[in-house]
Amino acid sequence: MIEHAVLGRPGGDNALWVRVNTGQQIHRLLFDCGNGCIGPLGSAELQAVDHLFFSHFHMDHVAGFDGFFRINFNRDTKPVHVWGPAQTIDLMQHRFRSFWWNLHEEQTGSWVVHEIRPDSVDAARMEVAEAFAVRHPAGGGPCEPLIDGPDYRVTVRLLDHRGPSAAYRVDEECRLNVNPERLTQSGLRPGPWIQCLKDLSVTGTVDIQGQSLDLEQLRADLLERSPGASIAYLTDFRLDEDWTERLASWLAGCDVLICEAQYAKNDAPLAAQNFHSTTAQVAELARRAGVGRLELFHLSRRYPEFIWREMMREARAIFPLTQFPAAWNL
User: Fold this and answer.
1) H-type helices in the chain, by residue range?
2) Catalytic-residue membership of 60
3) Rounded Cα gap, residues 232 and 299, in angstroms
4) How does pLDDT run across 289-330, given as a tens digit for each residue?
5) Which of 13, 32, 50, 60 is the catalytic position?
6) Which of 38, 85, 269, 289 is within CB 3.0–4.6 Å of 164 for a Cys-Cys bond?
7) Domains assigned to the chain
8) How many CA atoms lie within 13 A of 104 on its CB side?
9) What's the whole-model pTM score?
10) Do residues 32 and 15 touch, judged by C-beta distance below 8 A?
């Protein structure tokens, strides 16, 4: 399943924390790193982050990165992967190099920075032992999908914020479940063999109650596939009719859409001028995409709290399944 939490507070910097929990393994993903956002996660969770995704590099989306870097700069358990739009490699290396490195030579820790372009991804690896001074080529490839693992996939769209702002969608792989009625009818008792049944990399036969049974036949008889969960993260972007149509097809059927709520409906001209969106526009996007739920965040401080509530009413008039993050109590 996919668990998530919007970090930060209303009217302040925000970020998104996502955990893809397969029951056997947990993958941790962080989207943006605003000031004061990551503290509640704790060091253990932050040290286990698999990927850090930046939408763009305005201050309110990166101001908390130094805290993340301090915890992970010399992590030796696995590389830290960072993703973002054009200039990500340059900007990240500048951040890495902005500290005095004089006790680093014997330390280990690798950072792989991925720069997303319209048709491809470039990547560079940098090492703490080299004071992050050298960019080692780290491959690259197509940008669709960004990540295609056995448990989840990540896709991206580069939005218009007078420059690219990356939007991300995470899709859990299809779930395999044993149909309880078919299991009862088979006369087989549940046991450790069920894990072999769900692990599609295991082939051949499996011993069950003294019988040697073919795994492929058992899978055909007992397993059901159901869609995995999905979540998308969109922030700081201009939304017009063309973009609405393009994004609606990409977001189609997404369970949870985490989306900015910068401007009220009446301030649409100001939103367009500043390459942002209104609550009415993102609610219409959610409606056309048929998402399961719209969660509004990244609220502008220009509005008092009672206007935020009015913006919520505007959104719900178009897409009723809209809410603020539950922890905000708005």
Assistant:
1) 43-47, 59-62, 65-72, 88-97, 180-186, 193-198, 215-222, 241-251, 268-273, 279-289, 305-318
2) yes
3) 18
4) 999 999 999 999 999 999 999 999 999 999 999 999 999 988
5) 60
6) 85
7) 2-173+228-328 (3.60.15.10), 176-226 (no CATH)
8) 19
9) 0.88
10) yes
